[in-house]
Prior knowledge:
- The structure is a single chain.
- The chain is α/β, with parallel strands linked by helices and 243 residues long.
- The chain has helices at 18-23, 27-34, 58-62, 80-91, 106-112, 207-220, 224-242, and strands at residues 3-9, 42-48, 66-70, 95-99, 119-131, 145-155, 165-172, 177-186, 189-194.
- A nine-stranded mixed beta sheet has the order 2-1-3-4-9-8-7-5-6.
- Helix 4 crosses helix 5.
- The longest helix has 19 residues, at 224-242.
- The model has no long low-confidence stretch (mean pLDDT 95).
- Bound molecules: zinc ion.
- Zinc ion (ZN) binds next to loops.
- The site of zinc ion has 4 residues, from loops.
Amino acid sequence: MPLHITIWNEDSLQETHENVLKVYPKGLNGALAAIFEDKSDCVVRTACLCEQDGGLPEELLADTDVLIWWGHCKHGQVPDEVVSRVQDHVLRGMGLIVLHSGHESKIFQRLMGTKCSLRWHENNDKERIFAIEPHHPILRGIPAWFELEAEEMYGERFDIPAPDQLLAIGWYESGDVFRSLCTFSRGYGKIVYFQPGHETLPSYHNEYVKKIIGNAARWAARNRELDRELHSEFAPALEEKKD
Length: 243
Ligand code: ZN
């Protein structure tokens, strides 16, 4: 059964700033979708905030195994009902990958229960990312460490609950460090936070960043077979609760 991946961005291609288009001519959604373009077992759809239902209607989420989220300036414009709908799907098993500045999105804050704030500066620091749990499926094919020539510095303290698994640490030439790749579970859903991806820097062209996102999508994706079993077992209770 193919993996159904939905990639969401706050901007449509038309809304994307020219400085972003210089690095990503097809926008961030296009760059992230390209990670999966040679994977015949993946069905990728892209969505953005300006579309109906914030780009994430019920039917699309119900058909999404993993949702990849990139947002920055428009967190406050995401309607609360969209946030609740995504949360509901995560709790029922949909995977969620939150990238870069999505750390302060309403959905990530809702699922973490904290502000998810961090320290940052934009000095185009070199970043070295250390893969500290090499046995984990998300780090398959990733060396002990790799470098990004320039990234926005995200530094501790990152106001998140202790992750289920801390998979990678970022170090910057400014001397800062950051928990750059973390996993969480909420309800039946798996959540991944991954730090690289400032919109005017080419991190989504880096082979290891792309590999991590590809691996993360497979790891976090909902298990449809398990889902069917769970739903048949718990569906009456869930329906009752809704009324
Ligand atoms: Zn940024």
